[in-house]
Amino acid sequence: MDGIHDLGGMQGFGEVGYSPAEPVFGRRWEAVARALLVAVAGAVEASGGEFRHSIERMEPGHYLTSSYYEHWLTAAATLAVEHGLVTRSELEERAAGRFPLSGPVLAPPVADAGPDVDRPRFGAGDRVQVREWHPPGHTRCPGYVRGKTGTVVRVDGIHSVPDVEAHGPARRREPTYSVRFDAADLWRDGQRGVWVHVDLWDSYLERS
Amino acid sequence: MSAGSHHPAPASPVEQRVAALEALLTERGLVPEGFIEEITRRYESEIGPMNGAKVVARAWVDPQYQQRLLADGTAAIAELGFGGPEGDHMVVVENTPAVHNVIVCTLCSCYPWPVLGLPPAWYKDPPYRARMVREPRTLLAEMGCPLPADAEIRVWDSSAEVRYLVLPERPPGTEGMTEAELAGLVTRDSMIGTARL
Fold it and tell me: What dihedral angle (degrees, nearest 10) is formed by the CA atoms of B180, B104, B150, B191?
């Protein structure tokens, strides 16, 4: 989905709130939220794709105004409700207030994942173009490279396609590639001497 | 145990929500005794940038190890005993005087846990994720890492299964130092690529 999480290249954000060192968990609730997500993801057997998509479906205003551990809390609660472990009204009753959850899944379940791709279609040095499309569900293809042309620099083995695994028990496995883009091709104001590398699944790409 | 039990101050709304989910899941038997403490301990003490620093120092003193590290990061890092979730497919990218590498995850917060620990808050926040792929030269300078205008910048967006570690350059004047002393020089940021040593 074209969600708020797809942040690469968005403008207007200002300074990074940098700190040279910080505690792993600044507050105890952050550690608890993190552990609860592990518990829920284990109980409902959520794939990495389903977990990430449960964060991506957060309402954009909530996403941008909450810390990453609040994202994890929201993901844990959303998955727990969607898989029937708890209900939203139980959560709100216990919390004595609103308990914002992520929005609904917009994509239909994947019934037929299609055949695995066992062998890389591309090799290092090949020119590839990223498909220009707007899937309603989960994808790991950042918006800022769609339609752009780059060069494969590495082939990284065969992995489950997140776009499939986020939407049901079906799985499809494909090669992934590291693709190098010239910043000048990505952005009208791209900085000189900059290469941006993005790791992409086989079905995101076409030969250029 | 509730999330707020260690805090004398009234629970904030987010703390109340965490406590609510924790209580409901515990009642349903989904949070075993000691589970939260065990996970917390693991991420607070077993992993962190001290692991990555050992990898870097070894590469600086052992050219053959460095070769193996750059050829197969996962295997070479496993030689030092590090591996596991978010570190199953490691690629190590080498800084040189002419080339600077930096890692980011524009879509979420992917980061090499076994060697760097959990990511700092700023790495997961929108400004870093939005800007590092679009204006890395400006952002690096802002973060205290200005680069020569002719230095090539390689940004690595961790969008699939690979997790990256930057191999910083060994600082000059460290020829007499032991491997352990060298590891003490290696910072978290130098392995993300937001600093040079």
Answer: 0
| Whether A36 and B18 lie within 8 Å, measured CB to CB | yes
Contact A39 B161 (CB under 8 A): no
Residue linked to tokens 């037929």: A112
Catalytic site includes residue B108: yes
Nearest to B36 by CA among A95, A47, A34: A34
Active site residue B5: no
pLDDT per position in chain B (197 positions), as tens? Answer: 445 456 567 889 999 999 999 999 999 999 999 999 999 998 998 899 999 999 999 999 999 999 999 999 999 999 999 999 999 999 999 999 999 999 999 999 999 999 999 999 999 999 999 999 999 999 999 999 999 999 999 999 999 999 999 999 999 999 999 999 999 999 999 999 999 99
- Cβ atoms B86, B92 nearer than 8 A: no
Judging contacts by C-beta atoms under 8 Å, the chain A residues touching residue B127 are 13-17
CATH architecture group of domain A127-207:
Roll (2.30)
Which of A17, A142, A157 comes nearest B107 by C-beta? A142
Alpha helices per DSSP H over A57-207: 60-64, 68-82, 88-95, 162-165, 183-186
Whether B145 sits among the annotated catalytic residues: the reply is no
Tokens of A196: 């941006």
- Contact B14/A29, CB-based, under 8 Å? yes
CATH 2.30.30.50 domain residues, chain A: 127-207
pTM of the complete model? 0.96
> Which class would CATH give A1-105?
mainly alpha
* Best residue of A196, A200, A204 to probe chain B, by most B CBs closer than 10 Å: A196
DSSP string for B133-191: TT-HHHHHHHTT----TT-EEEEEE--SS-EEEEEPPPPTT-TT--HHHHHTT--HHHH
Contact A95 B13 (CB under 8 A): yes
